[in-house]
Amino acid sequence: MTATPRDQSGLDSPWPACPVQPRVAADGELARPLPPDALCAIVYRGDAVSASADPRLIVAPLPALRTSCEGEIWFSSTPVRSGRDGLVDWSCNDELMIVQLRLSAADVEDTENATQRLYAELLRFTQVRGFPHLLRAWNYLGRINEGEGDRERYRRFCVGRHRVLGGQPGYERRLPAATVIGMVDGGLVVIAVAARRFGQQVENPVQMSAWRYPRAYGPQSPGFTRAMLAPWADGAHLLVSGTASVVGHATAHAGDAQAQLRQTMANLEALIKQPGLARRGFLPEHFTLYLRDRADLTPLEPLLARYFANVPLQIFRGDICRRDLLLEIEGIYRVPPAIVAR
Ligand code: 3EB
User: Fold this and answer.
1) DSSP result, 121-133
2) What is the distance in A from the centroid of ligand 1 to the CA of 331?
3) Strands in 267-312 per DSSP E
4) Predicted confidence (pLDDT) per residue in 152-194, tens digit
5) CA-based nearest residue to 182, from 242, 240, 258
6) pTM for the full model?
7) 95/336 Cα distance (integer angstroms)
8) How many helices and strands, by DSSP H and E, does the chain display?
9) How far is the CA of 120 from the centre of ligand 1 (A)?
């Protein structure tokens, strides 16, 4: 784990108790207007990029292969404000701001400039509103593997993102945990969680830091950290980036979904068991699997049943950013408060 940078705004004071409680939505709950104390809600429906009437409502633009629920609602224990401002749908409480930005397929043909435009807007908006620390970003990019070599849309995305995030002083230490998944709709959706305070970046000892990947993977190495620790006073959250069968910088087990799943689980284990972190005692909270090919689900089921016996797992169909990767898993771990207060 790396050291936390100093926060010049003075907000590197201890984090308060976590002011957000996510819970699975009851049947039909997401069809009704959200209650005032909802910071945001995520609904799993459909393939297409769509705005919702309430800026707090996030529509995941991927087809669900298996979900335990219709979606989830994050309740806030402090007052919620929300609105729309240009490209930005936002909501916030005292500690966190959730933003979503969307571009339609026609506006993403120039993927590099489209990504730059969204990230510039995202960063400007969260900074002006006093939430300058990006903790987590989800990026859904249409036709992510289209284009050959350096023209591939994911690689252009990395260039556009870096033009914004890479422009910040000491940017490697400010990169959020992230997921980038391809979708059928040609557009681009970026959803981010920004905080008033610095989170702690966590890298993975068995994976090269992505921002150091060699040139072979594209003209600009990907700007994300493997995980972000939000050290709430009543129990930290570890927000883990999309994790795949990557060892060092290389794809392991190309063409073998079961072996990729085993490697991915080993990578997650290496992340939370690394020296300095292990004593925190991480408990798996909930996870999401993105699968390139629906047909791989059946052979993976026995392994998934074992790995995720008592842990909620959502499964979506989505393309992974490297063509030889068949799946990717993200998730959240919690640290029980008794261990935090050691
Ligand atoms: C990898 O480890 C797999 O570009 O933000 C996973 C999560 C991956 C996030 C990103 C890429 C990103 O390189 C790919």
Assistant:
1) HHHHHHHHTT--E
2) 14
3) 283-291
4) 999 999 999 999 999 999 999 999 999 999 999 899 999 999 9
5) 242
6) 0.94
7) 20
8) 5, 20
9) 20
Q: Give, for 315, the enclosing helix (H) or strand (E).
A: strand 313-317
State whether residue 309 is helix, strand or coil: coil
Does ligand 1 lie within 6 Å of residue 187's CB atom?
A: no
Active site residues: 328
Give the number of the atom of ligand 1 that is nearest the alpha carbon of residue 210.
13
The secondary element (H helix, E strand) that includes residue 65 is strand 64-66
Tokens matching residue 94: 């005292």
Q: Is 321 a pocket residue for ligand 1 (Cβ < 6 Å)?
A: yes
Structure tokens at 141: 């990019």
SS (H, E, C) 21-60: EEEECCCCHHHCCCCCCEEEEEEECCCCCCCCCCCCEEEE
Query: Nearest CA to 198 among 178, 179, 175, 222?
Result: 175
Ligand 1, residue 246: give the atom nearest the CA. 2
Instruction: Please give the C-alpha separations between residue 160 and each of 94, 117, 252, in angstroms, as whole numbers.
Output: 30, 8, 27
Please tell me the distance between residue 77's alpha carbon and the centre of ligand 1 in angstroms: 32
Q: At what angle do helices 153-165 and 111-128 cross, to 10 degrees?
A: 30
**69-104 per-residue burial string, b: 16 or more CB within 10 A, e: under 16:** bbbbbbbbbeebebeeeebbbbbbbebbbbbbbbbe
Structure-token pair, residue 293: 């090919």
Interval 132-147: pLDDT, tens: 999 999 999 999 999 9
Query: What integer is the mean pLDDT of 193-207?
Result: 97
Count Cβ atoms within 10 A of the Cβ of residue 148 and give its class: 0-12 exposed, 13-18 middle, 19 or more buried. Answer: exposed
